[in-house]
Amino acid sequence: MKSYVITVLLSGLFFTATAQTKLTLQQAIELGIRNNADVLQSGLAAERSSVLWKQSRMSRLPNLNASVNQGNNYGKSIDPFTNTFIDQKVTYGSYGANTNILLFNGLSLQNEIKSNKLGLEASEMELQQAKDNLTINIILAYLQVLSAQDVLKQVQEQVLVTKNQVDRLALLNNEGAISPSDYYDLKGQFASEQVSIADSKANVETARLSLSQLLNIPYRKDMEVVPLPEENISSANNPAPEEVYDIALQHLAAIKAAGLRTQSAEKNIRSIRGRLLPSLSFGGSMSTNYSSAASISEYINSTVAASSDYVDVGGTQYPVYKNQDHYANRKLKFGNQLNNNMFYTLNLGLSIPLFNGSNVRSQIKLAEINLRSAELQEQQTKTLLQQAIERAYLSLVTSSDKYQLLLGQVKSFEESFRIAEVKFNEGVITSVDFLVAKNNLDRAKSNLIISKYDFLLRKKILSYYEGKPMW
User: Fold this and answer.
1) Cα Rg of the chain, angstroms
2) Residues 6 or more apart whose Cβ sits within 8 Å of residue 1
3) In this structure, what DSSP letter does residue 225 have?
4) Sheet order of strands, 343-351 included
5) If we measure between CA atoms, which residue out of 418, 301, 288, 286 comes closest to residue 340?
6) What is d(CA 259, CA 381) in angstroms, rounded to the nearest whole number?
7) For residue 159, what are the contacts with CB-CB under 8 A and spacing of at least 6?
8) pLDDT single digits (tens) 419-471
9) pLDDT > 90: what percent of the chain?
10) Phi, psi of 287, rounded to the nearest 5 degrees
11) Whole-angstrom Cα distance, residue 160 to residue 167?
């Protein structure tokens, strides 16, 4: 969470520092991907999958553990060196290490590693899908800003035409050369169009706010977006939905992720089934100990001395002299004790599962259910993709046809308005007829702008499904 906050703050500072630079579509997408919480969460999910995969790989290595015990005994206790009872303070210590490696467990571990690897690849594809989804939303918000700006520009041009007529009619009305109703009709129209300008400006700011929030950056009133290159608004050269679908199946991250999840579920079943087979492991250990009571008797010398035994010679007792060996006790050094007390073991273990309350078999059944769920999810993802492509293609064709019709309508209304304006200026028609012609043209131009950006959006979506660059 701290890193997420820092990222957002740095992005905000970056955008503030470059406020004088216009925002391109590519910059908007890159900025949004860096800041978006869903994308960042998908990135963390991929990192977790990576850790899980690496950990499963490390499970193939031997484990190694060491132990150290150190303490004091008081009163009567067993000497760990001689195993006899003593009544003194004894400092003792025991030290050891052991290792164990799994040699075979029914390929359970190998399949678990493969399952986790596929899970990691699926997470990476899901991360890419999150970026793709965000990209489409950013393009939509970006186009809404451009559309709102073009509509505002068109409304401002409408107002300019009406203002010129109002100024002209004001002079004529003061001279009594026209019907006052014509002047006030145009003046009312001018006020209505000024309200339209205010609404259009509000729409522009709302679109900018939506884009800023999607990019997770502070809203700026002076934010400008760069217009997109002009495109030929026609659906004639677009591939059929079936072709687009086949292309999308090969590259779309969502499809790859769903397929990888299915493969991961299959490997998981094999991993769990391996637990039903015997497992073979090899291990070893070493240990030693130390005791402060441990000592050893060392030979010093031998002397001849009279003993308690005697011999009788003629009634006289003579003592018997014997050799006496002399020893001295010496504490054993710490290092010597460790070497002398070293103990080693090697073992080969075979574990045969006989009965565990059907725990493993239950896990297999659950894993099989998860596999069927993954298969259904994969098929559902493909079905939704096909339906989305069909809708996008139909919308593209419809918006293209609609644009061409509106283009012809605008040309017709432009000519109609030109004639009406000439007649109105000459006083042949009333203000009502003039305003009807003008409103028809204004409405047609606004619809044409909306239709244009609707087509561009559908075109971008199909480009996404085809794997083409969207900026």
Assistant:
1) 45
2) none
3) B
4) 63-73, 90-104, 279-291, 343-351
5) 288
6) 10
7) 190, 193, 194, 196, 197
8) 999 999 988 999 999 999 999 999 999 999 999 999 999 999 999 999 888 76
9) 68
10) -150, 160
11) 11
